[in-house]
Amino acid sequence: MFKLRFLTAGESHGRGLVGIIEGIPANLEINPEDIDRELMRRQAGFGRGGRMKIEADRVEIIGGVRWGLTMGSPLALFIRNRDWENWRRGMSPAREERGSAPPVTRPRPGHADLPGVLKYGQRDIRNILERSSARETAMRVAVGAVARRLLEEFGIAVGGFVTAIGDVSMEIEPSQLMEEDLRSLSAAAEASELRCPEADTAARMREAVERAAEGGYSLGGTFLVYAVGVPVGLGSHIQWDRRLDARLAHAFLGIQAVKGVEIGGGFEMSRRPGAEVMDEIFPASTGRGFTRKTNHSGGIEGGISNGMPVVVRAAMKPIPTQRRPLRSVDIETGGTVEAAYERSDVCAVPAATVIGEAMTALVLADAFLEKFGGDSVEETRRNYEGFLKSL
Amino acid sequence: MFKLRFLTAGESHGRGLVGIIEGIPANLEINPEDIDRELMRRQAGFGRGGRMKIEADRVEIIGGVRWGLTMGSPLALFIRNRDWENWRRGMSPAREERGSAPPVTRPRPGHADLPGVLKYGQRDIRNILERSSARETAMRVAVGAVARRLLEEFGIAVGGFVTAIGDVSMEIEPSQLMEEDLRSLSAAAEASELRCPEADTAARMREAVERAAEGGYSLGGTFLVYAVGVPVGLGSHIQWDRRLDARLAHAFLGIQAVKGVEIGGGFEMSRRPGAEVMDEIFPASTGRGFTRKTNHSGGIEGGISNGMPVVVRAAMKPIPTQRRPLRSVDIETGGTVEAAYERSDVCAVPAATVIGEAMTALVLADAFLEKFGGDSVEETRRNYEGFLKSL
Amino acid sequence: MFKLRFLTAGESHGRGLVGIIEGIPANLEINPEDIDRELMRRQAGFGRGGRMKIEADRVEIIGGVRWGLTMGSPLALFIRNRDWENWRRGMSPAREERGSAPPVTRPRPGHADLPGVLKYGQRDIRNILERSSARETAMRVAVGAVARRLLEEFGIAVGGFVTAIGDVSMEIEPSQLMEEDLRSLSAAAEASELRCPEADTAARMREAVERAAEGGYSLGGTFLVYAVGVPVGLGSHIQWDRRLDARLAHAFLGIQAVKGVEIGGGFEMSRRPGAEVMDEIFPASTGRGFTRKTNHSGGIEGGISNGMPVVVRAAMKPIPTQRRPLRSVDIETGGTVEAAYERSDVCAVPAATVIGEAMTALVLADAFLEKFGGDSVEETRRNYEGFLKSL
Amino acid sequence: MFKLRFLTAGESHGRGLVGIIEGIPANLEINPEDIDRELMRRQAGFGRGGRMKIEADRVEIIGGVRWGLTMGSPLALFIRNRDWENWRRGMSPAREERGSAPPVTRPRPGHADLPGVLKYGQRDIRNILERSSARETAMRVAVGAVARRLLEEFGIAVGGFVTAIGDVSMEIEPSQLMEEDLRSLSAAAEASELRCPEADTAARMREAVERAAEGGYSLGGTFLVYAVGVPVGLGSHIQWDRRLDARLAHAFLGIQAVKGVEIGGGFEMSRRPGAEVMDEIFPASTGRGFTRKTNHSGGIEGGISNGMPVVVRAAMKPIPTQRRPLRSVDIETGGTVEAAYERSDVCAVPAATVIGEAMTALVLADAFLEKFGGDSVEETRRNYEGFLKSL
Lengths: 391, 391, 391, 391
What we know:
The structure is a homotetramer of 391-residue chains. Chain A has a single domain (5-390), classed as Chorismate synthase, AroC fold (4-Layer Sandwich), CATH 3.60.150.
């Protein structure tokens, strides 16, 4: 992040999650419901375990907002863990409770469990899994909701949908999807418990998840996140780490269980001849300016947004925690065991989509503010409109 | 980057490329030939344009190294552009030469050309393309060679090979590749002008490139980069941006024309049931410790290296510059034109592999020093060996 | 900060203050009382306004600590504002409360009030003063207490005392103060309500503060902060921003109302001939190593700690808020007015000393971890002891 | 730095100094003479050793500038060491030259020599002193000249002068100095070989330096740096490290041998009652806006520039290297020795003033671009003027 700074903290079964984000201009209208809506979107979705009922996340704004408006000071957000009562002793910060819960010693393959205990010199895997758990992403979604609010002020909308669960996938050709296509796919997805815009594909996804639940295994999938209304000029070619696509990739691979990401045509572009995957440039239909009829580049050329929709796709592996356990080794005894099992989702791809949207909003807000950011929304708007007029 | 800082500068046809890297411990043996070897690897490869003959890059070490050893101070590297004589006026820093070369006004689709001029308020695309060009990666390779030297001291080796060019691809199953497999594939690739370890696939790749050259179009492809000897414990789950996979994705998508990246099983993992893609944990065959028989995770679990080979695959789109030009719009006149053409490679996937290796070396060196880094190689070694003993 | 990251948030009369600190190794023993002790030290001291009674700060550890030990994950701290009930509407994040308190429109000279509203486009100075207020430093002290705990593990102690209030000052010659001197001065100061180690000077300071309170004006002063047990080798000469003295200066001038800082002999050194202010080097009395008989350099040579006590002195201006008000201009009406007055301290130099200690602890912990930091206290200790043995 | 990134590299007797600065907007006019002028100012001044004749620094712009204008890409600067021929073997990067010069083993008190070799595990002090030497500041001055050019575009001018050398000092009361006073003092200083605006004080300074040169000792002093034309609103109160005064202090204590810094009234403010040191607020004489009749705050309130001149004063200790040597200990033999002597200046306060100006320019450019920075000078100007109009 070049203009925003944010940190999150908090354990999965601790008192709650905390987030601080600095760099949001003053006078941005922000209300808890703007954030709660996103938290709810993250929690919704078929295939999620019983844990969801416990959560029912609500944000509390502790700092940075007064009377519904930001003040320029850092925002502090808090999400209470509703389950905390049951973990009060086991996750207490107090020394007196030491030993009040047995250690977790059977690492789950695919998780941070084993590398985490070795890295941090721990003998209880709980000290790792409490932070590596996807529970933490609730705070990213909350912080991302603030970024999303900022982008909305400037006509930038972020959305997404699930494109595959396991081997059930919908056919899409991202290079052909224009703003309205993306918006309508996203709207359709919003009504789907699998967050998939195609009803029949969603039905087959549901079956696949049911089968997996019965079989005691988990499923991954792929999802697409987009942003429309993004102006030309975010990100930069001048240094590798400033490229917008690089920053998005950083953010997406920073989501638990995401193992792949592609921008626009992505991997498919690598298979086709050059002439077929470039987005030719045409004069804008009205006034000055330029337009494209295709979007293989996913809205980013040379690390800079080009005014077309930003399109990112990501691959999520199946969640490592599964009812049908995997072989592992007890870190205390060294003996071969079955990996620990904590009640878990069967498929978290719909949730990951919402997290991907949040991270996209954060990356774009950062790049937007890097170019246009003043200290208030009004100043930012003035800067932005001055740039648009200059084009 | 958390422990290393580095910046590069310099234009494609300017006097040369400059790089500064800070954070390398003192007493690391480093010689120009360590860097020149990597520069040569980047320049080799079938399918590259005539430009390569001009280059013949050689590094000059300007600071930070004395008598073949680092001093702890930042390293400054310089790579002269051999072509500079021809561009002395057109790329001169001197005001007096203003106008000595005609502006480039026909943006190439797929390049930074158009978004770059709009972002930076330019009327001559040259002021963008000179920095967005892949020429700049020569300095990343040089800086990466320093990182590679550091990793070597600690038994970490980075390699890679081309896995596909256009629609010609070799079959590999990364989850099954152990250290020796990766090393021998990489060694085989080193002898191939396509940097592909399978001779017959390489032959077919060569044909594809020849066909493309004749047809006046470009080709992309995919490549694999790995690191072996990586200890458990690099990267962290505690904050999204510290995850090792996120940092690698940042680095790979920071390479020109790379549009996708995956870690280990990547996209394929998203299609398969959970039980099939987890790397079960077994006791190490000798002594204490743990081992795996598969590597779907690509050596990274929960954002932390797990001791298995780190495996990254990337997709590169075809180079936008093609002899058979694309439709574009003149930024001066607004009229429909053919995009500009500068002599260019037909296929740069072998070169991108070397750049991917360099970026991998930089990310791993950063994460390694974050955990073990002292101010000298000796101190770093002591820290590292102490950790290994403690496991 | 190079190894630690921390952010604080929260308004003076909002619900509370929030802090997140990342980078503290796992297995550090930390208990709320370690933090509360420092919060109490900040609140104590003669000359503070009635507000102190309201505060009685207590930290709540929300994340990062389990059973009295850090886990490697970021720590989240919360300090409730006890006064919140009275400000529930006036400082509410809820839009519905908009307008429930009259705006502050008369900027106080010397405060962020006027530049703040102009910068952030505000019409109510409260939106600035709530964050610029020194109340915010309570969280810095809390976060600093964590850093202090870390340093203690490695034998590094941070202390401080008030050296002047207004024109009442004690005579000290920092270059002559060795570890035991500093420790005993600090211990004496701990018993003083003015945090001044000399009883008679403290008595005169008290009189000066009483006179100021009667007269309706405020007083500043100077204070000294030191750290003992600091090993050689923290900070670096290789880049300006890595110098330990530069980092300390950054931290001290980051404290409200601090307008000057000096290391060791500071300004006095600039007046004396070179030969008189260098700390000559002698062989250590026992074993290998080196020692000094003076400490003009304040423990830092060439931006690197040299093993002598680190000594920093700072100048705090009188608090701008005074009962006897200053001339100002109403930002709404443009008319000449008296500046706003909020109940305030007469003299905050004792509190600033504690804040200076906290910031010193943070800077030193950052530099210590930059050199020796592993992911656990045990790993950090191993690295540290290995270095000491190597000297 | 929040918006600019810059790194410097290079050794005192190596091939030269290298600097990269990133974040300068495109279309800034910059010519080598803009930089060379500052390099010359740094080299001028009475009391400097013979080394200066060797230097005669000239910058070479390697990247980022074309035809006298920046392109948005990072600038790369190079300053050749004229003395390099004499050190070609002793400072060679080539392993073959190892041992071609005897090691330096007698650390100079007050320098990085001893802590540096211990930190970095060196046996030859040259490996430290080559980078810790003030020679490195030539590149900071060069990079600062670029920042200065940027500020000039927006009517911000940075200047400075020497206020004391040893115990010879001029009387100034910074709180009373308005823009024209500062400008005329600086202009007078420019004509003085001591960089002191008062001719008779300068004459006494000259005598003091001559006496010191004869006596074989060195002298420090104090200097003042200011910036005028600084708009309200640079820096921020919202987080400690964003405060403009903190950032300036970081930069000033990052200069070799600077041991103290104060903003505006500084230490003197700590001695006086509150009412005397606040800058009351008055309506601007014409139009809307505000003004002050005094400037105790040195142009910064609450960490934010307030539109008055920014005034910083710094204390420089005497240079540690002196002809009359100090006692030290040989790091090889452990025996008591006289410290090494390299030909050196007697008094570097005039040079430090120029370096202080350069660092001030960098900090202000960073804060200016943080608030107003677009990707081109034109965009930046539009943002800036829009803000000024909105006040």
